[in-house]
Amino acid sequence: MVSGLHRRTLLAAGLGVFAGCAADAPVGPPPPPGQPQRLRTLQGGFLAPVLAGGLPPPVRPGLPLPAGSGQFVRWLAPAALALRGTDLLVADAGSGRLWRADAYGLHVTGIAGAPVGRQTALALGPDLSAWVLDPFTRQVLRFGRDARLLQTLRVGIAGGAPAAIALAEDGFTLLVADAVGAAWSEHRGVGGVVRQIAPEAEGGQRISGVDALAAGRDGVVVLDRLRGVVHRVSREGRVLQTLGRGQLRQPQAVALDRLGRIYVHEAQDASIVRLAAGGEVQRWSAAELGVQQIGGIAADEMTLAVADALAGAVVLHSFAHELPREAPP
User: Fold this and answer.
1) Strand (E) or helix (H) holding 7
2) pTM, whole model, 2 decimals?
3) Which of 91, 191, 197, 301 sits between 20 and 30 A of 311, alpha carbons compared?
4) DSSP-derived secondary structure letter, 35
5) Which of 134, 103, 139, 104 is nearest to 121 (CA)?
6) Rounded Cα distance, 103 and 239, in Å
7) What SS3 class is residue 18?
8) Closest C-alpha to 89, from 135, 51, 143, 23
9) Following DSSP, what letter does each residue of 267-305 receive, concatenated?
10) Going by C-beta distance under 8 Å and a sequence separation of 6 or more, which residues neighbour residue 1?
11) What is the C-alpha to C-alpha distance for residues 134 and 188, in angstroms, rounded to an integer?
12) Each residue's pLDDT tens digit, 266-299
């Protein structure tokens, strides 16, 4: 039987093979640990074929949609991203549209009715449904893989300002960051707020901000812009570790990979900073990542996606070469 890790590794390898057909694909052996390997640069895609009734063709879970055969859609200013497997959500602030794309660069599908702006936040569920935060109407909309609207939730805390979203517990719980109240709210199903969590450090001291979230196996990663740090927080709200002091000045967004490393978009010097629980820090400039202006980031497993808001592209990088080697049988 193929393990989940092995399956993901094979998928990453397949993506790398396909990306090898692109002009910007990596050549030669993988880079050393601590350095990303560029897989592919996506500038949009061909519109996927549409069946009767306006629905895209049926798909099997875990497999990409068929290659698009319609006109080529080019992104103008990609901002927020979400990545899960080979599915990629791109909020194009330039056109005001949300697109679902595949990481192979074969096709794109528009999601009509999804609010898109420079403060839009995205997430992809285990069923590949698209979650979209509209901070102005204080709503989260959930769209199926066929682009149908499945659910609309009123979110946030009274008097607060919804700023970001994340999915926990295999997608059963929606976390909504409150930038004003330095807290997050949790929502399940079609109901309202299940509970509100206000993270506290040792001694009961509240943190100063919950401006972005990333949910992991061991809790939640919280971005605190005022202090220029990220906190590892338990689901009950206890701060377990604070990282990034002296490394971050204008942090904008966070993402989390399979090994629990935290990726932070640092606006002051236009870079991506990676923080590990053991204190290791890596930093890559926008130029090193192949982008002109970082618009947003997303991570899944060992793949990092970086939006280029100026060039109208999304660049995919792999860190699969950093995975620990499995012991021989």
Assistant:
1) helix 4-19
2) 0.86
3) 301
4) S
5) 134
6) 35
7) helix
8) 143
9) TTTTEEEEE-TTS-EEEEETTTTT-SSEEEEEEETTEEE
10) none
11) 18
12) 999 999 999 999 999 999 999 999 999 999 999 9
